[in-house]
Design goal:
The strands form two sheets. A two-stranded parallel ribbon has the order 1-4. Strands 2-3 form a two-stranded parallel ribbon. The protein has one domain (22-179): Nitrile hydratase alpha /Thiocyanate hydrolase gamma (Nitrile Hydratase, Chain A, Alpha-Beta Complex), CATH 3.90.330. The chain is globular and about 55 Å long. It has 184 residues and is mainly alpha-helical. It contains eleven helices and four strands; from the N terminus they run αααααββααααββαα. The chain binds cobalt (II) ion.
């Protein structure tokens, strides 16, 4: 696949249809500017500001847009909150729907057929394979993303972080924590 992509890119550049610098800029944009750091800021704000958390519950699309994150693949956002005894996991069983404005591009495994099918059939087993062992009495809620609705998991705020500011809190939030395959 990597070779095919490279061959296609070379051809497009050779024919003058794309500018390699523009391609680099697009990849950089999704990897570094639209990556999961955006979602981490949303989570950190939700942990720090109860009024924001309430707005996130009521209308996640609008609350996320307050921080400047909106656009394609993020038009209808729902925030799902982990808490004592509840863990949320996001999948797209049909394809690879994913909240681009807050998480960037999906990881390869998110698009794989084993993840897409097994996250629904055996979420606890899938989580264990990610190294996420949940207590037996924790309820696991699996959310199936669609072209209509995209989900962002709000992980539990780690203990011992009372003194941290938003930027420091955001640094603790991982991409997999916001998909739900990991805990923080
Ligand atoms: Co999909």
């Amino acid at each position: 696949m990597a070779l095919r992509v490279k061959a296609l890119e070379s051809l497009l550049v050779e024919k003058g249809l794309v500018d390699p610098a523009a391609l680099d800029a697009i990849v950089d944009h999704f990897e570094h500017k639209v990556g999961p750091r955006n979602g981490a800021k949303v989570v950190a704000r939700a942990w720090s500001d109860p009024a924001y958390r309430e707005r996130l519950r009521e209308d996640a699309t609008a609350a996320i847009a307050e921080l400047g994150f909106s656009g394609a693949q993020g038009e209808h956002m729902v925030a799902v909150e982990n808490g004592p005894g509840v863990h949320n996991l996001v999948v797209c069983t049909l394809c690879s729907c994913y909240p681009w404005p807050v998480l960037g591009l999906p990881p390869v495994w998110y698009k794989s057929s084993p993840y897409r099918s097994r996250a629904v059939i055996d979420p606890r087993g899938v989580l264990a394979e990610f190294g996420t062992e949940l207590p037996a009495d924790t309820e696991i809620r699996v959310w199936d993303s669609t072209a209509e609705v995209r989900y962002l998991v709000i992980p539990e705020r780690p203990s011992g972080t009372d003194e941290l500011g938003e930027a420091e809190l955001a640094a603790l939030v991982t991409r997999d924590g916001m998909i739900g395959t990991a805990r923080l």
